[in-house]
Amino acid sequence: MLNYDISRLKYKVQFGTIQSVENDNTGDYSQQFVPQVTCWCGKYTQTQTQQYTLMGNDQQDLITIAIRHNSAVKESLVAKLDGVQYNVAAVNSDDQLNAFDTVTLKKISKP
């Protein structure tokens, strides 16, 4: 995707994994988000037809963001945007010069 205004990249997103991390005070382990890649992103708006399709497929917790091309961003990672954790559902990568990738994120529901 080449036609994306760079001034719309005004949010910070972190990509990483969920790992067991030891608490230094108690020695207990807990599952925590551990960032590996941080980059600027912009929210990618969907057409009304795309929104209706997602609602019909019960996919309302999906958002799409645009980032500068980054080969380290993969579907096996977890994203953290505005304090909310998401699974990376899809990465539409474009490795051309000055290109952007679109990343689809699915909100992780808390049990």
For this entry, give a set of tags.
111 residues; mainly beta; six-stranded antiparallel barrel; 50% strand
Explained architecture:
This protein has 111 residues and is mainly β. It has one helix spanning 48-56; strands at 11-22, 29-43, 62-68, 78-81, 84-92, 100-107. The protein is globular. The protein starts with 10 loop residues before the first strand and ends with a strand. It is built from one helix and six strands, in the order E-E-H-E-E-E-E.
The best one-word shape is globular
Count of DSSP helices?
1
How much strand?
Answer: over 45%
Multimerization status? single chain
The overall pLDDT average reads: 84
Trace the largest sheet across and list its strands: 1-2-3-6-5-4
What is the rounded distance between the termini?
Answer: 36 Å
What are the low-pLDDT stretches, counting only 5+ consecutive residues below 50?
none
Fraction of residues in helix = under 10%
Report the sheet with the most strands, covering strand number, pairing sense and barrel closure.
6 strands, antiparallel, barrel
N-to-C SSE string, H for helix and E for strand: EEHEEEE
Rg value? 16 Å
Backbone structural class:
mainly beta
Instruction: Give the strand tally.
Output: 6
